[in-house]
Amino acid sequence: MKKQTAMNRDWIATARTLSEALPYLQRYTGAIVVIKFGGHAMGDDAEMESFARDVVLMRQVGVNPVVVHGGGPMINEMLSRLGVESEFVRGKRVTDAATVEVVEMVLSGRVNKRIVQAINDQGGRAVGLSGKDGGLMTCDQTDPSLGFVGTPADVNPAVLHKLFEAGMIPVVAPLGAGRNGETFNVNGDTAAGAVAAALKADRLLLLTDVAGVKDASGEVVTELSPDHIRELTEAGIIAGGMIPKTETALAAIAGGVRAVVILDGRAPNACLLELFTDHGAGSLIRAPRD
Ligand SMILES: Nc1ncnc2c1ncn2[C@@H]1O[C@H](COP(=O)(O)OP(=O)(O)O)[C@@H](O)[C@H]1O
Ligand SMILES: CC(=O)N[C@@H](CCC(=O)OP(=O)(O)O)C(=O)O
Asked: If DSSP states are collapsed to H, E and C, what string results for 52-80?
């Protein structure tokens, strides 16, 4: 009897949650949501499982999710095992010919397949690809001093639309093809922003290992304007890996994405709470018309 009462309480809570979520579910039916899953947000198996469950649930309620992942820490680990040094300039890895080989092996291989498998284990149908597949992302060299680092120049999302139509979840590794047969290493945030802009996505979620963009006092800024981003960057308060994220947010908005959220991907159900409740956390940067 006691058990029954507890069960009823659970159902009432679930029904309440569902009725609160309904307007959000309706708003996002058919929406395209690009999720950047950073290497630092990936965490352990439980965090990966929770992320995969969110993505599958999104798909089940009619959202078209696209995962664009990073994997910087995993690349670092492999480079150090191989005794190759690497350095970062403004959040981007200086990438020579030997490094880009390792980057491709780690991102398109181990990291991409771990995410694909996690989504499939939760009942989704994920397909792993990189920017080199299906003409998705053609790049130009960002800056000769960075070596094989690419800036997406021509993004053709046709292959992603085909996967949406087939009910599949694309999982994209941030590598691009050069115009002369090169392989380019693309910062994961930059790749996610370019894919989101090409798709004119409804939301770009940049998952990381901090609650959002912090100001000088260490508080998360819940809504950020472009001017505030520029101010915090010039003051050195937005630094390191946060620079490509905020630059990406501005470029994505300029490219037609409706809103970008920078949030902690390790928090349980981070993506679902962000999309389907009022309790979303993180820093929101939105297009003036959104
Ligand atoms: N103003 C800021 N607010 C929040 N984090 C910041 C800020 N400036 C720099 N950071 C750093 O940026 C990091 C996120 O970037 P990064 O480590 O590249 O993440 P990811 O691997 O998830 O892409 C945070 O862990 C934090 O140390
Ligand atoms: C050019 C560049 O810096 N590429 C990144 C690609 C991976 C990435 O962006 O991973 P996170 O999202 O986990 O940081 C790198 O080599 O580390």
From this structure: HHHHHHHHHCCCEEEEEECCHHHHHHHHH
Distance 110 CA to ligand 1 centre (A): 23
223 SS3 class: strand
- Reduced to 3 states (helix: H, G, I; strand: E, B; else coil), residue 272 is helix
pLDDT score for 285: 95
C-beta separation of 74 from 106 below 8 A:
yes
- In this structure, what CATH number is given to the domain that contains residue 154? 3.40.1160.10
As for how many domains the chain has, the answer is 1
Residue 120 lies in a domain: yes
Q: What is residue 1's predicted lDDT score, i.e. its pLDDT?
A: 47
Q: Is residue 25 part of a domain?
A: no
- Residue 176 backbone class (left: φ over 0; alpha: ψ -120 to 50; beta: rest): beta
According to the model, what pLDDT value does residue 186 have?
A: 98
* Cβ contact 151:190 at 8 Å: yes
Within a domain: 86 = yes
Cα-to-chain-centroid distance, residue 2:
44
Q: What is the DSSP letter of 146?
A: G
Please tell me the residue having the least CA distance from ligand 2 atom 8. 70
Structural domain of residue 165, as residue ranges?
30-286
Mutate to test the pocket of ligand 2, among 88, 187, 242, 245 (most ligand atoms within 8 A of CB): 187
Give every residue of the chain whose pLDDT is below 50, as ranges. 1
CA distances to 69, 135, 137, 153, 268 from 179, rounded to whole Å, are 23, 11, 11, 10, 41
Other C-beta atoms lying within 10 Å of the C-beta of residue 34: 30
Q: What is the pLDDT of residue 194?
A: 98
- Tens digits of residue pLDDT in 2-12: 555 666 667 77
